[in-house]
Amino acid sequence: MDTGSRSQGLPGLCAAYLLAALALLYLSYRLPRLLPGDFLTALYSGAEASLPPELKEAYRNQAEALITRGFVGYLNDFFTLDWGRSLAFRKPVRELIFTALPWTLLLLGSAHLLSTLVGFFAGVESAWRKGSLPDRLGVSLMTILEGIPEIGSGVLLLLVFSLSLGWFPAAGAETVYSDFTGWQRFLDVLHHLALPLGTLFLAYLPGNFLLSRAGMLYAINAPYMLTAKAKGNSPLRQRYLHAARNALLPVVTRFGVRLASLLTRALTVEALYSYPGLGSLLCNAIALRDLPLISGIVLVTSLAVLSITLILEFAYQKLDPRLRA
């Protein structure tokens, strides 16, 4: 691909992602409004108490205004960061999302980074030792783990290490009403992070391992490996500088393709452990039919997935020399 074709492809790529972003904006506006029921029905469906008629009318008028507000007004509110107020929490949606977002980024980022590094290097070493006992054991274990959903491994970890042994807390991200600072708070956050992180690590690791191993097996048999060996490169240099670099490309591709799935898994685990991220917030918002909050969370997560996918498009061109040729 020459420089001219790359320069022509870049505007087309950006235009495609811009259209996708507009489609996500419309879906985040439209889909929550198709949910059955309303905020008041969800809030008082199982309670004997009820609001005074005037407050009911005020809430229903507010909800009706949200539903009848047009898409153009929704776009204007989005770009001005005026995402409305949560009906359930009585706080600005932007404040609630930006409070929960760091916890989701901490959980998802650390789980993905650890599982990618461990899975990639373990897959590379396993492929380099194809047929050995560690290779056969590793493939068997990862195949089993690949078939276990994160909700299953999460419940198992919760029952064993929290409810039975009591080694880790069952919920939350920090000790409630604690006044920890500095290293004490850091260790407390890690203590609460252990089980959700372990659950996502076990969910993400098998795919990274198996894909890295398969890519490495393909790279080992490529003609350029014979050239690298003929040049007198050490086995370590052959393994990582020549073979592993090309085995990394499918891992990057898989991350971009399955990014939405990875995020969905993180939201599920957050709800399981009552971790105060976007997952728990979204579950509460859906249960209470909190339309402004649902729309805000869906929009932020969707645009985040789209933005990271666009970044990976450029990263892949840097990693694969054939796309720069």
Kindly describe this structure.
With 325 residues, the chain is mainly alpha-helical. Helix 5 (93-128) runs antiparallel to helix 10 (235-257). 27% of the residues are buried. It has one domain: MetI-like (MetI-like fold). 76% of the residues lie in helices and 0% in strands. The chain has 13 helices and no strands.
Summarize the SSE layout with pairings.
Layout: H1 3-30, H2 39-44, H3 53-68, H4 71-79, H5 93-128, H6 133-146, H7 150-164, H8 182-220, H9 223-230, H10 235-257, H11 259-273, H12 278-287, H13 291-319
Strand residue percentage: under 5%
Radius of gyration: 24 Å
Alpha-beta content class:
mainly alpha
Kindly report how far apart the N and C termini lie: 6 Å
Tell me, what is the CATH class? Mainly Alpha
Query: Low-confidence parts, pLDDT < 50 over ≥5 residues?
Result: 1-8
Label this structure with key terms.
325 residues, disordered N terminus, 13 helices, mainly alpha, MetI-like fold
What's a concise summary of this model?
With 325 residues, the chain is mainly α. It has 13 helices and no strands. It has one domain: Orthogonal Bundle (MetI-like fold).
